[in-house]
Specification:
single chain; about 60 residues; mainly alpha; Helix Hairpins; 3 helices; globular; protein kinase inhibitor; Sda; protein kinase inhibitor activity
């Protein structure tokens, strides 16, 4: 049986403090894996916020 989508716990302040430590590539990989694994929307929001802060673009947002 799969755990429910909201069964994972994370400390938002800890995540916010650690995001700047990730390389750009690891941050993008974390975001894509979080989407693929259907993690909590709030966690996805934190990742996407850091991506925007760094002015990175997600592959689907990159111009061709």
């Amino acid at each position: 049986m799969m755990p429910s989508r909201t069964s994972y716990y994370y400390d938002e302040e800890r995540v916010k403090a650690m995001l700047p430590l990730l390389s750009d590539d690891l941050l993008l990989d974390a975001y894509h894996n979080a989407v693929r694994l259907r993690l909590e929307l709030e966690f996805l929001r934190l990742l996407k916020s850091e991506i925007r802060r760094r002015r990175l673009s997600l592959p689907e947002e990159r111009p061709i």
